[in-house]
Amino acid sequence: MFHAATSLVPSPRSPQSEKDQHHQSPDRRSKQRDAFFDNAKYLAIVLVAVAHAWEPLKGGSRVLQAAYMLVYAFHMPAFIVISGFFSRSFDASPGKLKRLVTGVAVPYIVFETAYPLFVGYASGTHQDITLLDPYYLTWFLCALFIWRLTTPLWKLVRHPLPLAMGIAMLASVSPGIDDDLDIQRVLQFLPFFVLGLYLKPEHFRLVRRRSVRIAAVPVFAFALAFSWWAVPRMDTAWLYHRDSAQELGVPWWVGPLMQLALFGCSLLLTACFLSWVPGRTMWCTALGAGTLYGYLLHGFLIKGADYRGWFDQPWLHRPLGEIAVSAVMAVAVTLLCTAPVRRALRFVVEPRMEWAFRTDPVRVAREREREPERAREKASV
Hints:
Blueprint: H1 18-23, H2 26-31, H3 35-54, H4 62-72, H5 75-85, H6 94-123, H7 139-149, H8 151-156, H9 160-171, H10 183-188, H11 190-198, H12 201-207, H13 210-230, H14 254-275, H15 291-307, H16 319-336, H17 339-349, H18 361-380
Helix pairs in contact: 3-4, 3-5, 3-15, 3-16, 4-13, 5-11, 6-7, 6-15, 9-11, 9-14, 13-14, 15-16
């Protein structure tokens, strides 16, 4: 998510300063990335965008509603688990806080302002701009900012995952939680982030075994069949994790049970999804570095098409139309992750903002000590 390697969640790399990475050659920087995680992020962002495009079309198709329900059961949990995994090094140091501000807080402010302005223009209505009420896609940036700030706490407590699960279960029975900053979602998705904090590389290697890939086929088949059965019986809002049980019109005790059930199902489907992610470098691997751009920008395409009435075309609500919309959105979000888009919009999505921060004299001294070493590395390239 930072200057050397842009993504919805940061990719693995050695613990050196941003300036060191900026001076490295492209070949050296690419070796620090893990193709598996870049592939996973790219495939996940395609699922996110395609599922958003299905939303205006799914009303008349039970099959599409089932596919929508299945994808929503794991696409954001997968992103959040990976986010937690790459937040393990967050220690609230000045450098980490600076990157949190420039890589998460600033994009949140920019797009939380841009989306209401765009929707107001497209719909011809007035839309209030407020930083307290995340609009559409921006809730994830707000949640990631809060989760990452609390990382040192989750490293400190003895039983972090049960504690996070307890908080999520309590949130599901607390209709009094205010909508500000989408705190209900922040709390209900919290266990996935905390789980990611405690995962190790070997855990991801476990799900990538051949036996797991084979087992994932019947699991996904059963999940799709179950989703088809559940379409008229289950409120899809449970998968959004933004409402309490009482707000969904069920007894309060259903909330904690659904939290446990959904956590287990989402985790299983996430493991199956990751088992199918290629671990080798592919044509799409480099796009994993631009998933933040694809995530934040594809909403303009969907909202623009919706307000222009493009989704109202009858032929789009037939199987061939639904396939066409899925293909177009997959291509569109792929293009939004490419290097030209990232270069054009880096000033708002990943601003350096050196002017906004005080200079750390200790860091400056360390940089000066490393200058001879960097010069030797540059000369050897």
